[in-house]
């Protein structure tokens, strides 16, 4: 059964009357509470204003101290004086943590820090650049003597950087403000709460104005602290029990009266409201359609994505899909990592999700890849989705900042290029300066300063006319005027005046800047290098003439060698013929002598028989010597084959010693492997040391070395002190031949160049090419030759490859 609207109204008014009387009973109490709250508010606001004044006085005190420090330091030129002054005047204050001098290019020049009650001074290459710090952009626009405050939270401790602009740099004092906050909390009757540093005055306020009295303390135009005192409310409702019965009776009577009085008007009003509700339903439907339209607009223009707690994509906007080049079906259900660039570390991502899981929001930047592989940068606002205090997903709103990042990279590259140009400017060997149209110095490098002996500050206060000799001042003024029309003038030799009054000849060049017609590049170069270059050119010409003369001598030598080779070839042919002609009668004589020996043996024993036997033996020895010489001549005169063949090196040594025997027996004793060489008893197979070489070419090397040794040994007066030892042995798959004499050794000044052409120790003969030829022959045989001194004599050591065993 539907209850009558009038009955509903009746009971409603009864209840209303009871409530009305109840509220009336509280009127006086509410007025009293309001009065107390007003007094409480005034008291709290007075405290907050006083605390604000204390904090502002604290800031003002350090502003004044920073001005005093700036004025004092600007009068000091040396770093040691600045360090001593800062340490003595500032670091007695326990609130001061550090003092830094920063250049206009963002690089730190000097840094003094307080660590464990001691000051630590940082200079040189340990200093860093503050270009990446947030407040550097605000620093750059400061005017001279203008102060900037910037606050930050380091290790849960609040600090404020006081920054003042000087002419050529910035002074930064870092202050720990813990002491002032402790004072604010401890010196007042009410407890004061303090917020973190805020960057926007309309967002992220942790104290609501309903429950707290708050006061903002601005550090700069963007940052401020919030001081808050809790608004305590005291409400006492016990007294309502005393009026309970009266309220019930009066309320019931009023309800009856009002229900009878207002039933009909309220019924009419109810019908009117029903009609309005129908109109409201139509309006809601219309608003719903408009909302859907707005959602479509947002979907097409706002980049949005929603993830579940496992980082899978649940929903994304069309704008985000269009930006990435994906369709919604390609993104939904996939992990968000398909969009994240590989440069973003997993550890950084975990920090983001960890922050959001505890109820915080994340605002930051991230790098990613589009579908086509293009790299992009977006700014993210990420917040968690919670149901029953449990994280179920994430909402992410994105903004494209790719172009901004590209501009920042260009800006960084530009700064690097500026640094590189400055480095080149400072380290170039020429003295370079920038002057204005009147000739005043604007900028100069260290080379320019060193050439003239001035300090940089002194030259910047001078004109280029001031540093040139008086005879050239008018000419330089004229050149400064003409270069503006011509564009550049170079290679002018002028006399400049150094700081100490001495003169220096420099080469001057002037160039008008194409981008700035009011400035010129003033370049000076020392003429000492030019003169040195001229001397070098002269020396080079002399050296070339010497080398040409040597080449002419070499050509003459080669011609002589060719003639000599032709002669030797003829002599070899003649020697071969002579050897053949001698060998025939020699064989005949040896045969007849042998028959005659048999006849002598048949004779009876007598003095004549003994004399004839003795003479026949001597004749045999002579014939054997002739036979050995003829055999050596035949071998040496054979046509040289330009191919390498297996050769017994011991045999080649015997052949060469035989050819040199006629001279060597008059000069010195020769020992081969510690055995005295004797032409009468030769056995070429006594030792076998095989190497694959050109036989006649190697024999030529032995003859050259032996003759050189004989030329030096003959200079010794005492024959007994003359000796040539030849050692032949095998070592590590190499055949080693050593010629060691006792002639005093090779002079040290020619020892290293002994195998070079035209190097000789002989005073009256020899052109110094024999050993050069020998070295070339040994090199052609894949061998090695070296010379050194040992035991008061020269040693020539030749190494050849031994034949591999077959």
TrEMBL record:
EC number(s) given by UniProt: 2.7.13.3
Using the record for this protein, list the coiled-coil segments as residue ranges, or answer none: 523-550
InterPro entries, per this entry?
A: HATPase_C_sf, HATPase_dom, His_kinase_dom, HisK_dim/P_dom, HisK_dim/P_sf, PAC, PAS, PAS-assoc_C
GO aspect biological process, one term: regulation of DNA-templated transcription
Domain PAC, by residue range, is 490-542
Q: Which residues cross the membrane?
A: 243-262
Domain of life from the UniProt record: Bacteria
The record's section on PROSITE patterns has:
HIS_KIN, PAC, PAS
Q: Which residues form the Histidine kinase domain?
A: 577-804
Q: Where is the PAS domain?
A: 417-487
Q: Which NCBIfam families did the record assign?
A: sensory_box
In Gene Ontology terms, what is one molecular function of this protein? ATP binding
Q: Which reaction does it catalyse?
A: ATP + protein L-histidine = ADP + protein N-phospho-L-histidine
Instruction: Give the Pfam families listed for this entry.
Output: HATPase_c, HisKA, PAS, PAS_9
Q: Which protein is depicted? A: histidine kinase
Keyword line: ATP-binding, Coiled coil, Kinase, Membrane, Nucleotide-binding, Phosphoprotein, Transferase, Transmembrane, Transmembrane helix, Two-component regulatory system
